[in-house]
C-alpha cells in the first residue's frame, strides 16, 4: 500500500539516506530502529516530504510522487494522506486541546465546524482526554500533550500516521500512557510507521521491524525474526547495547 523506492537524501556532502526500499501494507505497524544518526528521522520526514528526497519515489495506493520533480499539488496531496506525530508535540500554545485537534480538520480539510468538533471529541475520548478539552497545552503534562498530538493525527484519518520518537521527550513515568494509546490505535488497524528507541514496545506492537544503520536498511522482517534471530552482526550489536 505504501512503497518507498530508492530514497536518497543528502544534506550538503552528508549522505544521510543511501537508497531505501520499503513496503508497508495496510494495517502494518512498522518500527524503525537503529543507532543515533543512522537516518531514521530523515527517512520518516521524507515520507511526507517534510524533507524532500533527492532521488526516489513514494507511492501510497495509486498515488505516486517523485523526489526529483514533485509538483506543489503532489506534495499537498501527499500531506493529506499522512499525519505526523512529533517528538516535541508541536501544539498551538494559544489554542485549547479541542481547538488544536479541530484546526487541521477546519483549515486543511475544510470540514464544517460542527463535524470537526464531533470528530475531535471522538478521538480525544479515544486518547483519554475527554476531561481536558478546554485546557491549554501548558496546563497539561508531557504525556497528555503527546496524546493531543496523537489525537490530532488520528482526527485527520490519514492513510498512515508517522511517529517521530513520540516518547523520547517524556519523563520516564509518562512514557507508558503514550505507548498504551499507540498500542490501542494499532489494535484498531491504523497503519503506522514509528521511529522509536523503545525496543520492548517495538517488539510487542510492531508487525514489521526495520533496522537502519548508515543510511541503509541493514535488516528487516517480523519482530520475532529481527529481535530473536537477527541475521546481521550490526543488528546483533545494536540489540546487545540497547536491551
Ligand atoms: P536518527 O533519526 O537516526 O538519529 P537523523 O535522520 O536525525 O538520524 O540524522 C541523520 C543525519 O542527518 C545526522 O548526521 C544529522 O546531523 C543529519 N541531518 C538531519 N537533519 C538535518 C538537517 N535538516 N540539516 C542538516 N543535516 C541534517
Automatic annotation (TrEMBL):
Subcellular location as annotated: Cell membrane
Molecular function via GO: ATP binding
Pfam families registered for this protein in UniProt: ABC_tran (PF00005)
SUPFAM superfamilies recorded: P-loop containing nucleoside triphosphate hydrolases
Membrane topology label: Peripheral membrane protein
Record keywords: ATP-binding, Cell membrane, Membrane, Nucleotide-binding, Transport
CDD domains cross-referenced by the UniProt entry: ABC_HisP_GlnQ
All residue ranges annotated as the ABC transporter domain in the record: 2-239
PROSITE patterns registered for this protein in UniProt: ABC_TRANSPORTER_1, ABC_TRANSPORTER_2
Protein name: Arginine ABC transporter ATP-binding protein
Organism listed in the record: Paenibacillus marchantiophytorum
Lineage: Bacteria, Bacillati, Bacillota, Bacilli, Bacillales
